[in-house]
Amino acid sequence: MKQNSKILIAAGGTGGHIFPALSIINEIKMNDFIVITDQRGENYFNNFFSNKNINHKIFVHKVSSPSNELFIVKLRSIYQLLISLLKTIFLILLNKPQVIVGFGGYPSVAPVIAAKLLKIPSIIHEQNAIIGRANKLLGKISNLLALSFFETKNTENNHNLIYTGNPTRKEHCLRQLSYSAPNKTQKFEILIVGGSLGANFFSEQVTAIICSLPRELRENIYITQQVGKNDISKVKRIYNNHQIEFFIESFFDNIFEKFKKAHLIITRSGGSSVAEILTSRRPVIFIPLPTSFDNHQLENTKLITNIGGGWVLDQNNEVVKTLKKLLENLIKNPKKLVIASNQIKKLSKDLEVKRKNKSATEFFSDVLIDLIKTNHKKISKPC
């Protein structure tokens, strides 16, 4: 692909949509990028581009879900979509991108519709094991619907599917780093990542569960935890009161470094979280967000838990008792973690074979480059 191809990237403002987009931009950075996002996503993209020499323009579109039951809210959402569509058509005519890539969320809707109207090739990427509302619509009009999970639900009527996996940053790929359980002279290191949705549950409930462990176990653990800014001082005080060593921040810029050191991850199960577990090959306890659309976070966990690579707990069903018992078991029997890590390693290798022995980021980038080269006349065969 010649340098300085113009690529329009559209993504909603949550990490699950943003992080795959950033991974692809970083992989093929010798190009010009036009970014369409919402107010939440603007900070992610600004922070990403601030220390990188990548040509880009960022445009913020105000869009919202039309699924609200209130008629006036539906009308407002449709109006916002129409405005976004007009703005996008103008941007495309002015900047002439060769391809449009949607990473989900409502900011992706207008760009992919505009691509269809203006006959520009487009790709939609779905992060979860159950396709989202916006992607379900857009997948029918885009050239390719790229899947993070080999068997994504509710895609039966789509004939343009291709399995790519979920792109992650290169730093997260720890395939060359072996996993070992903590020995008697090491602390048992637990990484807790609550995510932007439902983080209070991790700050309050998960913290309390860890502090309820027997003293002899608390003395041998080290906690690295993502905590909301408003909860940092409270969580630090609780851990100090229970003589637990910890490192707490509201956001980890070098999260991959935390993954390297962790013996166990406790996290939600959004698409990006599952992808990071796959690439880091760390044992995991998933606590899915119970309010996720179509309960897709629970569905996401099955890829790893079904092969024994981790454990899944129901936040609404005696999680306090269950998580405490599980943590006690794993701390006392660290060989179970090694078995889980080996299972994830095997799964990760099997999925790479389906991507021609490439990472999700590399394979998705190749598909994108191929689409630009051929102008959608000869696309790689979908799965």
Task: Give structural notes.
- This protein has 383 residues and is an alpha/beta fold.
- The chain folds into 2 domains: 6-168 and 359-374, Glycogen Phosphorylase B (Rossmann fold), CATH 3.40.50.2000; 188-351, Glycogen Phosphorylase B (Rossmann fold), CATH 3.40.50.2000.
- The protein contains 14 helices and 13 strands.
- Strands 3-2-1-4-5-6-7 form a 7-stranded parallel beta sheet, with helices on both faces.
- α1 packs across α14 and α3 (71-95) crosses α4.
- The radius of gyration is 21 Å and the shape is globular.
- The chain starts with 5 loop residues before the first strand and ends in a 9-residue tail after the last helix.
Secondary structure blueprint with pairings:
Layout: E1 6-10, H1 15-27, E2 32-37, H2 39-50, E3 56-60, H3 71-95, E4 99-102, H4 109-117, E5 122-126, H5 133-138, E6 144-147, E7 161-163, E8 188-193, H6 199-211, H7 215-218, E9 221-226, H8 232-241, E10 245-249, H9 255-261, E11 264-267, H10 271-280, E12 284-286, H11 296-305, E13 310-312, H12 319-332, H13 335-354, H14 360-374
Parallel strand pairs: 1-2, 1-4, 2-3, 4-5, 5-6, 6-7, 8-9, 8-11, 9-10, 11-12, 12-13
Helix pairs in contact: 1-14, 3-4, 6-8, 6-12
Features:
383 residues, alpha/beta, Rossmann fold, 2 domains, seven-stranded parallel sheet, six-stranded parallel sheet, disordered C terminus
